[in-house]
Design brief:
The structure holds 3 protein chains of 3 kinds. Chain A is an alpha/beta fold. Chain A has 6 helices and 15 strands. By secondary structure, chain B is α/β, with parallel strands linked by helices. In chain B, helix 3 packs across helix 4 and helix 5 packs parallel to helix 9. Strand 11 of chain A pairs antiparallel with strand 13 of chain B, so a sheet runs across the interface.
């Protein structure tokens, strides 16, 4: 069985801070990691490799430094790695990204494609289902559990208050939640192997796509501005409220933050 | 594609088990506001099986018109049949805008539609507005980078402009009693090729105890709660908020609660979206375990308590008196929203 | 001179740091308080193939360079010195001499199992009357036909009680002095071998440290390691390689102490402001950070030297000497910056200070390191 796992290298947004003077993101020194949902997808694929001998190819679309994420995936046990990279792909929104990745995946043998639900930088959760649409295959999102039997996958698909048990014939695409599993660590020997393997590169020239469908040109959405929310100022302390007023005050603050 | 041909604000109505999701009411409310600015009307798009009875409700919440796709194949949500039907609606009705709730359904359905018809989709928006530069483009604002920045996005050259919108942000209108709106029954035949995922079962979840390190909301109690019986009120509060209870070391040492919910240097480190500290002084060992929480509210009788240095909002008061009232207020607010 | 780690070494560091934070740190206080050997961590070391990091894949090792292995010990020591001791005694002392001096049959029999972690290794040189004066071996080994008979005892042996194999040193010919000492591979179930009482220690309290007792212990002739009389030089060479691991451990302890202290002084307020705003705190931290960085460079230099050249005793001795004294100094000063809280077991700093002390003693005391270094200085 051939599994293609799509991953993204992302800055660890838990560690990103806002520069209080300029109000912009401080990106230097923020470590890059494999997106957590993607890592869970990779772990699911590696478990299928352990139990059924599946061949696992890991793929990412990104700048040259995304190679490190691929090496980490190889060190965890993936068999092959593919880097889809080209300046022409830059500036892509989710539509163009999915279109490009789908074109690259088509060049590989696949029975099952696994992506993460969403990346912790873009936070869109759109690319997975869009890749599936481009490849004209079914997709099952929000996978909490994945089982493979013969040509079929059975997936526990999460909703807010319930789950569906879904069955689909491969080829199909599944998006994984980080709750799906606890990803394994790399092994020291795996790191040695990972750096000895060659990473296959796919560029614009290798893909059967139109210029108008990739990169910035291929993106139907456009960012008009970005801004930071106001920085965390010193806290506000209120006293002399009676219990009802205090309760109302707290509720109001939670509403402001969209927690309620 | 001729942009001029596309008109109207359409809202995908999420219904599950014959109930309209709260976020759909919120989107109808917002759609009314946008429709005014865009000088157009609001249309609800309702998919399901034998759901025409919901049309009155949709009209009360602001729909000027309803497009109803009633089909056995749409009885339970499934990605491709729903995406197929929505695309047919778009092709026929040509909306300028189509909004979805950013739910487990919306965030699966919308991208599939966007890829199929080739248009822009913006995810998890917390703000929607109309550009005043003559284009009347929809301005879609959303958090990115784990919520560290906000981005405003437009879809200038493609239609419809689509967005999934975060539930609980937009305001629904006060429902109009006995409202009605014209219903356009739109027939869509779902091809076999779209029915390629079988639904083997649907299982509803019962709530279970969440690990404090996984919880997004923590209601935390300390020595100031006075005794173990007062932790019950914290449990009720946590239940209503959808979170779980944690505690400081003092409560654990006093034998009021189990060590597995202790937050702090010798307990667990947590970083929930909301940390509500009740009767916790905020000794340095405790702060070490929770100071990275996104939003911290603290209640303590002592205004010099160090917890107030870490809190976003601090209330000087008696948590044992405030929490029960607060819990009731939250219950009321949530019930209001469901209506 | 390239002061950068390779991409591979950086990735390995990320792995070790992650593992240490998530798997080792949560247990550190408990295993110290309960004086408990962390068998669950040993299990994870086996699962993630940490038991033969610097040894070749041919032998079931990971095939990494020495520096990568030392970085593993460094990262583990930041959160738990006991765990690092377990791994370094197994890898540097228990496995290394067999790989380096063993016959093909001995390597086949033992090295692979040690590298995969199927066997846990240990090393026994120290005796009640032979500490720094390690050549004063009183344990005797007498050849009798196809086997040796060993009598005597060893003390302060790390991993004893959990080890499957021990590299043991015994006197085969007293009249030859140093050149009368031989090395043996002893398996735990050889007749006449037993593990004695467990030591109660000041620090690395989860590490298993016991006495070994040889009462007419039968060791097959094939288990002589190297030639008769070569035991002492095998022991010294093994310790050279092992002491870089101790340097790494000491370095990690110092770094871990600094991490905790920097966090603490930013939070702790007295006189209306965080301790970090006081110049004394700032100067202390600056001093300790610089010393620790210097220690790190010495340790890395020794690790690289081990792979680059046949003799690296000088580098190894300097690294251990300086890293150990840095660990002792830094942990003491860090505890002071914690004030009263630092003296309680609620904070990890007192454990780090207790753990630091052993690095100035085992695998060659700091005095021994000075003897080695001055020997080279006066050449």
């Amino acid at each position: 069985m051939n599994i293609v796992v799509c991953i993204k290298q992302v800055p660890n947004t838990n560690e990103v801070k806002i520069d209080p003077k300029t109000g912009t993101l401080i990106r230097e020194g923020v470590p890059s990691i494999i997106n957590p949902d993607d890592k869970a997808g990779l772990e699911a694929a590696l478990r299928l490799k352990d139990s059924q001998g599946a061949h696992v190819t890991v793929l990412t679309m990104g700048p040259p430094q995304a190679e490190t994420a691929l090496r980490e995936a190889l060190a965890m046990g993936a068999d092959e790695a593919v880097l889809v990279t080209d300046r022409a792909f830059g500036g892509a929104d989710t539509w163009a990204t999915a279109h490009t990745i789908a074109a690259a995946v088509e060049k590989l043998p696949y029975d099952l494609i696994i992506t993460g639900r969403q990346a912790i930088d873009g936070d869109t959760a759109q690319v997975g289902p869009q890749i599936a649409e481009n490849l004209n295959i079914p997709n099952i999102s929000y996978a909490e559990e994945i089982k493979v039997e013969g040509e079929y996958v059975t997936v526990k698909r999460q909703f807010e208050d319930r789950y569906h048990i879904l069955k689909a014939k491969m080829p199909c695409l599944i998006t994984a939640l980080s709750e799906l599993n606890t990803p394994r660590y790399m092994t020291p020997g795996g790191i040695v192997d990972a750096y000895q393997k060659e990473i296959k590169k796919i560029t614009r020239a290798d893909l059967d796509v139109a210029d108008g469908d990739i990169g910035l040109k291929g993106s139907p959405t456009r960012v008009v501005k970005t801004f930071t929310k106001s920085p965390k100022a010193a806290g506000t302390l209120v006293s002399n409220l009676n219990s009802q007023e205090a309760a109302d005050y707290i509720l109001e603050k939670l509403k402001e933050k969209f927690i309620i | 594609m001729n942009i001029q041909d596309y008109k109207g604000i359409y809202v995908f109505i999420q219904q599950v088990d014959g109930k309209v999701a709260g976020v759909s009411h919120e989107l109808l409310g917002k759609a009314r506001e946008l429709a005014q600015k865009m000088e157009t009307k609001v249309t609800a798009v309702l998919l399901g099986y034998q759901v025409s009875g919901l049309c009155g409700d949709l009209a009360s919440y602001g729909a000027d018109k309803i497009v109803l796709v009633d089909n056995k194949d749409l009885e339970i949500y499934s990605t491709r049949p729903y995406a197929y039907a929505v695309c047919k609606v778009i092709e026929h009705f040509k909306p300028a805008v189509l909004l979805y709730g950013a739910t487990a359904i919306g965030r699966d359905l919308a991208p599939r539609v966007a890829a199929k018809i080739r248009t822009g989709l913006t995810a998890d928006c917390t703000k929607l507005d109309v550009a005043d530069d003559g284009t009347k483009n929809l301005l879609m604002t959303r958090p990115a980078f784990g919520g560290n920045i906000m981005a405003t996005i437009i879809c200038p050259d493609y239609r419809p402009q689509m967005a999934t919108v975060r539930p609980g942000v937009m305001q629904k209108i006060k429902p109009v009693e006995d409202a009605s709106a014209p219903v356009d029954s739109f027939a869509v035949e779902i091809p076999e090729s779209m029915k390629d995922v079988q639904i083997l079962g649907v299982v509803k979840k019962e709530s279970h105890k969440i690990d404090i390190q996984d919880a997004k909301i923590l209601v935390s109690g300390g020595r100031g709660m006075g005794g173990p019986e007062n932790f019950k009120m914290l449990e009720k509060c946590a239940d209503v908020l959808g979170g779980t209870v944690s505690s400081s070391r003092a409560a654990v040492d006093a034998g009021w609660v189990d060590k597995d919910i202790q937050v702090g240097q010798t307990g667990k480190t947590v970083r929930p979206n909301l940390y509500l500290a009740c009767g916790i002084s905020g000794a340095i060992q405790h702060l070490a375990g929770m100071e990275d929480s996104d939003f911290i509210i603290a209640i303590n009788k002592d205004e010099t308590a160090p917890i107030f240095d870490a809190a976003d909002y601090g209330i000087v008061g008696d948590a044992t008196k405030i929490i029960p009232i607060f819990t009731e207020e939250v219950k009321k607010a949530l019930a209001d929203r469901k209506k | 001179m390239d002061f950068k780690l390779s991409a591979q070494q950086e990735m390995a560091r990320t792995l070790f740091r992650d593992f240490a934070e998530k798997e080792v740190k949560p247990l550190a206080q408990e295993i110290d308080e309960e004086e408990r050997f962390p068998t669950e961590t040993l299990e994870k070391f086996r699962k993630y193939k940490f038991m033969g990091i610097p040894y070749s894949k041919e032998w079931g090792g990971a095939g990494c360079d020495t520096l990568t292995y030392e970085i593993c010990l460094e990262e583990l020591s930041k959160v738990c010195a006991t765990t690092a001791t377990m791994l370094s005694a197994h890898t540097s002392l228990g496995t290394w001499p067999i790989l380096k001096y063993g016959t093909p049959e001995q390597k086949e029999k033992y090295v692979r199992k040690l590298c995969t972690g199927e066997y846990v290794g240990a090393f026994a040189l120290t005796e009640p009357n032979a500490g720094t004066d390690s050549s004063a071996q009183q344990t005797k080994a007498v050849l009798d036909g196809d086997h040796y008979v060993l009598n005597g005892n060893k003390i302060f042996i790390t991993n004893s009680g959990y080890a499957d194999t021990y590299v043991i040193f015994a006197m085969t010919n007293k009249s030859l002095g140093n050149h009368g000492i031989s090395a043996f591979i002893v398996e735990k179930n050889f007749p006449g071998f037993s593990v004695g009482k467990e030591e109660k220690k000041m620090g690395i309290r989860g590490s298993s440290t016991c006495e070994l007792i040889f009462e007419n212990c039968i060791v097959p002739k094939e288990n002589l390691l190297g030639q008769e009389g070569k035991g002492f030089s095998i022991a010294m060479a093994t310790l050279d390689n092992g002491r870089i691991g101790i340097a790494a451990q000491a370095l990690g302890i110092a770094e871990g102490a600094l991490d905790e202290t920097i966090k603490y002084v930013k939070q702790r307020k007295q006189f209306g402001r965080p301790l970090a705003k006081f110049q004394n705190t700032q100067f202390e931290i600056a001093d300790m950070v610089t010393k620790t960085k210097a220690a790190q460079l010495l340790m890395y230099r020794a690790a690289i030297a081990e792979d680059e050249k046949p003799r690296y005793s000088e580098e190894a001795a300097m690294a251990k000497l300086y890293c150990a004294s840095t660990a002792m100094d830094v942990t003491t000063r860090c505890l002071q910056l914690h004030g009263g809280y630092g003296y309680t077991r609620e904070y990890p700093i007192e454990r780090m200070m207790r753990d630091a002390k052993i690095t100035e003693i085992y695998e060659g005391t700091s005095e021994v390191q000075k003897m080695v270094i001055s020997k080279y200085a006066f050449k």
